[in-house]
Design brief:
Number of domains of chain B: 1
Structural class of chain A: alpha/beta
Oligomer: heterodimer
CATH superfamily of chain B: Beta-grasp domain
Radius of gyration of chain B: 12 Å
Largest sheet of chain B: 5 strands, mixed
Order of helices and strands of chain B: EEHEEE
Helix content of chain B: 10-25%
Strand order of the largest sheet of chain B: 2-1-5-3-4
Largest interface: A-B, 37 and 27 residues
Distance between the termini of chain B: 41 Å
Structural class of chain B: mainly beta
Number of helices of chain A: 8
Helix content of chain A: 25-40%
CATH topology of chain B: Ubiquitin-like (UB roll)
Strand content of chain A: 15-25%
Distance between the termini of chain A: 42 Å
Shape of chain A: globular
Number of strands of chain B: 5
Order of helices and strands of chain A: EEEHEEHEHEHEHEHEHH
Strand content of chain B: 35-45%
Largest sheet of chain A: 5 strands, parallel
CATH architecture of chain B: Roll
Chain lengths: ~260, ~70
């Protein structure tokens, strides 16, 4: 069988699990959870340095950007201008060209603003960025993103941080079927089995933050997600059995006494 | 003395201070930050050349945990 390789924008990843680094108790916990998850890519946010409190620990001291791929995001940006500004700064920081674009449209649902997202994708691709795009599960818009040169499509399963799981399996499936670039479910996954389901459907990867960070034991949950993603991928590759409406015995009927 | 806005806070600095000198003074490693000077991103290679003036707006950002 052909080796199963996961590639995003020509970067080979060992793990199909990408993890966020927000919401943890402290950076030590973040680092331990990331390690346990087996992820080789983590999302990070860009924010002002706290000038007054320089003793505050910093992320890069706990997660070495030389050893793990930093995927800068635009969390908290509600306009194209804000998102572009953030990612241009991120690129200046460490030369990162692979970025995660998310332009939000509503404070309550954190639902992506696809008009601003499409606009930003076009500009970023033109500027040489490799853009992984957080988006709605709209099949046509997902195709548009691919046409615009996105490196990965990242539809939500349900609202960010909601833990409601995959509420839109049909749409996600349609996006998977039509896309030639990786489809990564971002947002909404609540527990390990949700990740398995996403992977079994044929997603190329999943991005998890809250489900790990907000669990009672993030280190253990990170491991659970690692296994869930591997299981789901193997199950997808193996191909599930056909569903039948009636029973089919598992033991042979020949030679029955 | 010159007054600048550093990450939204008013800070007084010596005249003819470069970005490089300011970072040194506030003990920040240039490798770990990115800087916007009056709305324009300054390449790291220009930190030593860029002098700060009265009323300049400086944004110094870095990576933090995020999803």
């Amino acid at each position: 069988m052909k080796k199963d390789i996961f590639k995003v924008a020509n970067k080979k990843l060992k793990s199909r699990l990408i993890v966020g680094t927000g919401k943890y108790k402290n950076f030590r916990e973040t680092a331990r959870a990331v390690k346990e998850s087996g992820a080789d890519m983590v999302t990070v946010a860009v924010r002002r340095v706290n000038i007054l409190d320089k003793k505050k620990p910093i992320l890069t001291d706990y997660l070495n950007p030389k050893k793990i791929i930093y995927l800068p995001n635009t969390a908290g940006c509600f306009t194209s201008e804000e998102a572009l500004r953030t990612l241009r700064l991120a690129r200046e920081m460490g030369g990162w060209k692979l970025v995660k674009l998310e332009v939000l449209g509503d404070k309550k649902t954190l639902y992506p603003n696809m008009i601003e997202t499409l606009k930003s994708t076009k500009i970023l691709v033109k500027e040489g960025f490799k853009v992984m795009v957080y988006c709605t599960d709209d099949v046509l818009l997902a195709k548009k993103l691919e046409d615009f040169g996105a490196s990965a499509i990242m539809p939500l399963g349900s609202p960010i941080g909601s833990g409601l799981g995959l509420q839109n399996k049909v749409n996600i499936s349609l996006i998977i079927k039509q896309s030639k670039i990786p489809v990564i479910v971002d947002a909404g996954i609540g527990t390990a089995s949700d990740a398995t389901i996403a992977m079994e459907m044929g997603c190329d990867g999943v991005l998890i933050n809250s489900a790990i960070a907000n669990s009672k034991n993030p280190i253990k949950m990170a491991k659970a997600f690692k296994n869930a993603v591997i299981s789901g991928r193997d199950s997808y590759l193996a191909g599930r059995m056909k569903k039948n409406y009636f029973a089919i015995p598992s033991s042979p009927t020949d030679g029955l006494i | 003395m010159a007054k600048i806005h550093l990450n939204g806070k008013k800070v007084t600095i010596k005249p003819k201070t470069t970005i490089y000198e300011l970072l040194k003074k506030i003990k920040l490693h240039s490798k770990k930050v990115a800087i916007e000077h009056n709305g324009i991103i300054i390449p790291k290679s220009n930190y030593k050349k860029k002098y700060l003036k009265n009323n300049d707006k400086l944004e110094v950002v870095h990576f933090i945990g995020g999803g």
